[in-house]
Amino acid sequence: MAFETIGFYVLAALAIIASVGVIGQRNPIYSVMSLIGSFGALAGLYILLDSPFTAVTQIIVYAGAIMVLFLFVVMLLNVPREDAAEWDRSHPLNRPGARRFGAVLAVFLLLELGWAVWHASTREAVALNTVSAGGVSSVAAIGRSIFTDYSFQFEATSILILVAMVGAVVLARKEPQ
Amino acid sequence: MDVTLNHYLVLSAMLFAIGTAGVFLRRNVITLLLSIEIMLNAVNLTFVAAGRHFAAVDGQVIVFFVMTVAAAEAAVGLAIVIALFRHRESLNPEAFTSLKW
Amino acid sequence: MDPVLLVQIALVVVVFHALLLSAAGMVWAERKVAARLQQRFGPTLTGPAGLLQPFADVFKLFFKEELKPKAADSVLFYLAPIISATTAFLAFCVVPFGPPTTLFGLLDRPVMLTVADVNVAVLVIFAVASMGVYGIVLAGWSSNNKYSLLGGLRASAQMISYELSYGTALAAVLLLGNSMSLVDLVNAQSGYWFGFIPKWFVFLQPVGFFIFMTAGIAETNRAPFDFPEAEQELVAGYHTEYSSMSFALFFLAEYVNMVTVSAVATNLYLGGWHGPLLPPWLGILWWFAKLSVLLFFYLWLRWTLPRYRYDTLMQFGWKFLLPLSILNLLATAAGVLYFGL
């Protein structure tokens, strides 16, 4: 088996297990660490897809900055572990009728996903184009595209970040007595 | 079997489903925000895979912008969580239902 | 087996052990330099001129009892030093330390003297530095000790604040060098102006060099920015509760981070392995010489300057260093456009 195939399956399994870990863990710090693991697996997948810049940006921005922010908030708020009482018995989604309906929907979703996978594998494989490494993925090409075709979006996102920074500082401020 | 675009799309769909399940099932606002990040990452994976498939650099450019927006959204979302926690001392979304009719 | 592949695998082993030895050497050098600056001798009994002192230290740490507070979170408590040490070693993997060599003609194609020759090497170093924050903040949290938690949070806030200036200073160098690969950036510094001034980026970017070194010292939590480990104020900060090998791993991570920051600064600003008088294949000696100068500078600073207080430290990072680095970037961009460098 080719290296890319093994790499894809290993990284995909890691990403899925880590994501299930995020939503399945009780301790919120473990959830955050699982998500960091998931981001690492996704960065590996981006490298397999010939996008080293996106992979490194994912680690810098997502795993290195956003997750640190989450970790700080979890630590400062001293978020406790959730216990089994989180499944509030009186919640409308937990009544038996709703549960059966939800289970039926989940079965349909799984059948559909299985059909999509089976259908995709029997069709002619839509191969990933084999382009040379310096072609699509070079940082220079991304930079050129951002600053010419997408320059308006670039400026808009810089204003967005400014607004978000100011908003976050204002929202999290203690009320002046 | 070679890895094709379909593999990446199925993986992305599964990650998106896991994220959605997390949003619906968890009773903790921070885990809610984490599940939203999982969904955004699934979409990023789709963009990069599609960009590679069509040999266009646009996929990565869009992912760049999605990451930026996700950072801004996480920052503001967490600030709101801190403000809510100060008000109500609880991180359960059930505690903030005063706008429901 | 392809001989080039064998050499590359051997390089991994060599670099790993060289980093371990360099950490040991830094321990010795620190004690000697500190001693001499304070007009005393330092270790002289363990081996000639105290050279075996770091090995004695490791030996002692190895045999100490491994303690863990009962209420500490065991998974995260042991994961934190592992993350610190791993990211420290990982960052050095993309740093080249010599010109491409064919081992005197034994190999048919030249192999780059680095563990991994990636073409976004600069970004990889930045990414791994961002991951190094987790070792510290998790150590602070999982120790279940308020001094550790404060130390951990302050250290990580300091590290992420100075990463901004670090990255902006890096961006200015990228403008000059037109590539993100460290090998290309070093090769862009070969040659001389007017025949005798080497084309190092430090002459084009003195402010950038100052910003990079300052941010690097703050990133590695060394004096004068070592408030997180301040012995007088916070017991020992985030590694209060650690003993024996976990503590040794934090220690190791700090010294290897110092070596990595100095190595990256050597490659980016001081011309890497280019130097006069020696033939090109001996460039690695020049690289070591420049690295040693920067590391001595690190040690010299620690025992000369007083420590910054935490709020002045954060003010310095955000209100002085970051605007200065942005101005540096703008000035470099203007210079590149106007002079066509």
Can you characterise this structure?
- The complex is a heterotrimer of chains A (177), B (101) and C (341).
- Chain A has 177 residues and is mainly alpha-helical.
- Chain A has helices spanning 3-24, 28-48, 52-77, 96-122, 139-148, 151-171.
- In chain A, α2 (28-48) runs antiparallel to α3 (52-77) and α5 packs across α6 (151-171).
- The longest helix of chain A has 27 residues, at 96-122.
- Chain A starts with a helix and ends in a 6-residue tail after the last helix.
- The mean pLDDT of chain A is 81.
- Chain B is an all-alpha fold and 101 residues long.
- Chain B has a domain at 27-92: Helix Hairpins (Orthogonal Bundle), CATH 1.10.287.3510.
- In chain B, α1 runs antiparallel to α2 (29-53) and α2 packs antiparallel against α3 (58-88).
- Chain C has 341 residues and is mostly helical.
- Chain C has one domain.
- In chain C, strands 1-2 form a two-stranded antiparallel ribbon.
- In chain C, α1 runs parallel beside α10 and α3 packs antiparallel against α4.
- The longest helix of chain C has 35 residues, at 3-37.
- Chain C is globular, with a radius of gyration of 21 Å.
Q: What is the typical, i.e. mean, pLDDT of chain B?
A: 88
Gyration radius of chain C, rounded: 21 Å
The stretches of 5 or more residues of chain C where confidence is low (pLDDT under 50) are none
The biggest beta sheet of chain B is recorded as: none
Structural class of chain C: mainly alpha
User: Could you name the ranges of chain B where pLDDT drops below 50 across 5 or more consecutive residues?
Assistant: none
Helix content of chain C: 55-70%
Strand content of chain C: under 5%
Q: How would you characterize the largest beta sheet of chain C?
A: 2 strands, antiparallel
Number of strands of chain C: 2
Number of strands of chain B: 0
Helix content of chain B: over 70%
Question: In the CATH hierarchy, what is the class of the domain at 27-92 in chain B?
Answer: Mainly Alpha
